[in-house]
Design a protein that fits this description.
Blueprint: E1 2-6, H1 12-22, E2 26-31, E3 43-46, H2 52-59, E4 66-69, H3 75-85, E5 92-97, H4 132-144, E6 149-154, E7 156-158, H5 167-176, E8 178-183, E9 189-190, E10 192-194, H6 195-207, E11 212-216, E12 223-224, H7 225-236, E13 246-251, H8 253-257, E14 266-267, E15 270-271, H9 289-293, H10 301-315, H11 340-350
Parallel strand pairs: 1-2, 1-4, 2-3, 4-5, 5-6, 6-11, 7-10, 8-13, 14-15
Antiparallel strand pairs: 9-12
The chain binds NADP nicotinamide-adenine-dinucleotide phosphate.
NADP nicotinamide-adenine-dinucleotide phosphate binds near residues 95, 97, 156 and 157.
């Protein structure tokens, strides 16, 4: 099949490109050439997806069996691509998020859960927000047609090339060694999906031209938070330079959430820490019955952690690492990862 990836070079899009090439498909990627280089074997078209001219140049004289859109974040972006590609592609898969559901992360969601009320014709350049993916979904359905559209609501993605700084942050924290602040309930059941498992499933349902919606993530409990952190520590191993190995020091939610200068931001300062609070009660409870019945298979977390650590070592420090070793998108309001001095203060006070 001929497959167009809107994006296709960074993380999930890259995994889609790899899965499609492995299965013998012809792959075109469309991106600005900023984030990463494209995989060998794809036809890479450079352009800005907000630009109608660049998109017109992309589609001129071309037709694809399927489009996979991993990069639209704004409804206005989805409107122009879905409108234009209507005549140049047979099928459109939009990668959305569990964020699109208004009940998430407070409640368990399934494919019939209500979406945020963001409309398809939301003006461009909105500040980032969870509701926007719902508007993107509506835009694709409206302009490409529900009979030819598949929506994949992604859960938390991890794996090699991760650009969210979550699993990489924990692996690199373990590599720094010493006492590590391990927050909350070690028995908390998570649901995290390896980007390669997402893409393998995605290519199957894209090429079979499925329509409708799948919440695409692992079943709840594919790893607990305690296993997640212990595996990160194990995969990283002992420091070779004589520094003390990482030692997990578990601290309950309450003191970490207590107001004050050393209050810790869930999810961001200690990535993926979801405390036991009503606002986050459903964070790892998305219903995966439909996606499992459709064939999603998830590898063990150990394999994801090992492969991500191997990739990190080969890659070296990310360009956007600051003096504290914190990573994040440049200019983001919060960076992932706690400042080391704050972590040590909390450990001294609470452990
Ligand atoms: N990470 C998670 O846990 C998670 C959870 C739920 C949902 N999701 C969703 O999953 C999707 C996966 O994202 P990804 O980063 O892994 O996908 P990706 O396709 O691997 O990367 C994004 C691509 O879009 C391109 N791009 C970005 N802005 C562009 C623009 N204005 N014009 C043209 N190309 C542009 C980037 O290349 P250039 O920068 O070089 O242009 C890159 O190739 C996202 O939609 C995200 O919201 C992720």
């Amino acid at each position: 099949m001929k497959i167009l990836l809107l994006g296709g070079s960074s993380f999930l899009g890259r995994a889609f490109a790899s899965a499609a090439l492995d299965r013998g498909h012809e792959v075109t990627t469309f991106n600005r050439g900023r984030s990463h280089s494209d995989l060998a074997g794809v036809e890479a078209v450079r352009g800005e997806r907000d630009s109608a001219d660049d998109l017109a140049r992309l589609v001129e004289g071309r037709h694809w069996d399927a489009v996979v859109d991993t990069s639209a974040q704004q409804p206005a972006q989805a409107v122009i691509s879905a409108r234009l590609l209507r005549e140049h592609a047979d099928h459109y898969t939009f990668v959305s998020s569990v964020h699109a559901f208004s009940d998430w992360p407070a409640l368990a969601v399934n494919e019939d859960s209500p979406l945020h009320p963001c409309p398809a014709d939301t003006p461009p350049d909105q500040p980032p927000g969870n509701a926007l993916k719902a508007g993107c979904e509506r835009a694709v359905l409206e302009h490409f047609g529900a009979d030819r559209t598949l929506i994949l609501n992604s859960g938390l993605l991890i794996g090699p090339y991760e650009n969210g700084g979550r699993l990489p942050w924990w692996l690199e924290r373990m590599a720094r060694g010493g006492p590590v602040l391990a927050p909350g309930d070690r028995e908390r059941a998570m649901q995290v999906i390896d980007v390669r498992d997402f893409a393998a499933f995605g290519i199957e349902v894209v090429t079979a031209r499925h329509t409708g919606r799948y919440i695409t993530t692992a079943p709840t409990g594919n790893v607990t938070f305690g296993e997640f952190l212990a595996t990160c520590r194990e995969v990283v191993g002992e420091p070779s330079d004589g520094r003390p190995a990482a030692e997990l020091v578990w601290v309950e939610d309450g003191p970490l959430l207590a107001e004050g200068p050393d209050s810790v931001l869930p999810w961001l300062e200690l990535p993926l820490w979801a405390p036991d609070v009503p606002e986050m009660a459903g964070v790892w409870l998305a219903d995966t019955a439909r996606v499992q019945a459709a064939g999603l298979r998830c590898r063990p977390f150990t394999e994801t952690a090992r492969d991500t650590w191997a990739w990190l070592q080969q890659r070296g420090p990310a360009e956007d690492t600051d003096a504290d070793g914190l990573k994040g998108r440049k200019g983001a309001r919060h960076k992932n990862g706690i400042v080391p001095a704050k972590e040590q203060r909390l450990l001294a006070a609470l452990a």
